[in-house]
Fold this sequence. Notes:
Number of domains: 2
Radius of gyration: 22 Å
CATH superfamily of the largest domain: Glycogen Phosphorylase B
Largest sheet: 7 strands, parallel
Structural class: alpha/beta
Strand content: 15-25%
Helix content: 40-55%
Strand order of the largest sheet: 3-2-1-4-5-6-7
CATH architecture of the largest domain: 3-Layer(aba) Sandwich
CATH topology of the largest domain: Rossmann fold
Distance between the termini: 13 Å
Shape: globular
Amino acid sequence: MKILSIHISTPENNAEWWRISNIAKIMEEAGHDVDLVHYCGKSKYENFKEKNDFPNDKFIITSQFGVYFKHLKILKENKYDLVYANTGAGAFCSLSGKLTKVPLVFDMHGDLLQELFLRYGNSVNSKLLANYLLFKTMEYANLKASNEIICVSNRMIDYLHTNKGVSLDKMDYVTNGVDLEFFSQRNDKTHELKQDLDLEEKLIFGYVGGFQSWQGIDNLINSILTIEDDEIAFLIVGGQEKHDNTAKNNLFFIPTIKRHEVPDYYSLCDVLMLPRPSHLATEMAAPTKFAEYTSMGKPVLTSNVGDAADLVNKYNSGIVVENNSVDNMVNGINQFKNITPIKLKKMGKNSRKLAENEFDWNLVGKNLLKSLEKTQNNK
C-alpha cells in the first residue's frame, strides 16, 4: 500500500514522536510505501534545527485552516491507499480527506479532552472553555469519521465502546512497543554511577521521565521526603534543572539526559516507579516508560491505574498500590524494602517476561499490520 502518515508539528525527542517514527518504520519494513508528512507553522519549521536528520520526511508549512486544503491537495495529487493520522490533532487535520475515498486510520495516543481536564484540575477559565469546545469537536469528528481507530490500551477500547458508543469492530489494540535489545540491563556504567552518587549498598528506587501533571511526581516527591532510611535512596531523572540533592532523604535529582543514557540510569535502580494519579486520562494512556521499565527487567511500583497495574498484577512483576497518595506510595516503598533479594530478582525476571510478551515491537507490529489490512479490505 501507499500510505500517507500525518504528524502535526516537527519531530521532538519524546514518547509521542518515538511511537510515530516506529510505526512508520514498521509499515515500511513490511513493504509499504510510506510518506511521513509533518504539517507545521512557518516559525515552527524555521526554528527546527534538525531538518537534516529527517531527509526522507516531508515538511509542509501551513496555517491552522490552510492545512485542510493542503491535505486534500496532497491526496488528489498522489494515489494513496490509506491515511495514517497520528494523534487527535493529526486525525482532525486529515478530515478533509474524507472527500476522497481514501480510508482514514486514527492512531489515538490518548484522550485530548480528559488530558485537558487533568491539566487544568478544578480551575475554570476562558482558555479551558475554548479548548474544551475545540477538543470536544475534535473528539466527535475523529471518532465518527475514522475508518479505524488504533488504541494504545485495553482500557481505552473499553471506554470508547462503553462511553462513546464506538463499535468494537472499529478499534484495534496496538500499544506502545519497546526495543528489547536497547532497553536491557547494562552493568558497565552502573558501578561508576553508584560511586559518583554515593549509592553503594542501598536499595535504589528510580523514576525516569517527564514532570507533567499526569505523571504524579509531586506526590512521589512528597512521599520520599517523609522517609528517613539510610538503606534506601531515590533517583528522579528528567527535570529541566538540577535540584539541590537532599542527603537527609537520600533523594537525588538528575536533569534531563540523552536518550542513549536512559538505560544506564534504569540499570542503576532496583525498583522503578510509576506514580500516576487516578484519572480517565491516565486510565486510557499507555506510558512508554512502563514498557521500558519492564524491558529492563526491573520490579515496578505503580499506582492502580490503567493497563500497567493490570499487567503488574498478572505477571507478579511488582507492587500495585491503591492510588498515588503519599501514604500509599510510602507503604509501597516499605513493602519493597521488606522483600527478600531472591523475590526481588524473581519480580525482575517476571517484568522482563511481561515486556517480551506484551511490548516487543515485533508483536506490536503484527497487530498494526493486521489492522491496516482489515481497513484496506473494508474500504
